[in-house]
Design goal:
It is a single chain. The chain is mainly beta. The chain has one domain. Helix content is about 0%, strand content about 30%. β2 and β3 form a beta hairpin. The protein starts with a strand and ends in a 6-residue tail after the last strand.
Length: about 100
């Protein structure tokens, strides 16, 4: 499992800079830099999706389509820790995996 630090505060799954999902997907099949990646699991927070029983996950499974990333191991992230950025994102395209490292 990979430790995740998410600063996408506009995502409905973000709680305490962690994700309330058990897994996320990083997109960016042809990425050669961080700007060509994004969190495919982003969901805009509407306020309606939040509830008090959500549990932030500090370690989760991360699927990765960024085949040019040094941490991509058979479409799974093998990094010990990643950061998802996009503080005021309104959609997945405005997020990035800032831990992307081109092979």
């Amino acid at each position: 499992m990979t430790a995740l630090d998410c600063n996408v505060s506009t995502c409905g799954y973000n709680e305490e800079r962690c994700c309330c999902r058990s897994e996320i997907d990083v997109k960016g099949t042809k990425a050669e830099d961080t700007d060509a990646t994004n969190c495919g699991s982003f969901k805009k927070d509407t306020g309606e999706s939040r509830n008090s029983t959500r549990t932030p996950n500090t370690n989760l499974s991360i699927g990765c389509e960024a085949v040019n990333c040094a941490f991509n191991d058979a479409n799974q992230c093998s990094a010990d820790h990643i950061d998802i950025a996009g503080t005021s994102a309104n959609d997945a395209a405005q997020t990035i995996c800032s831990s992307f490292t081109c092979k």
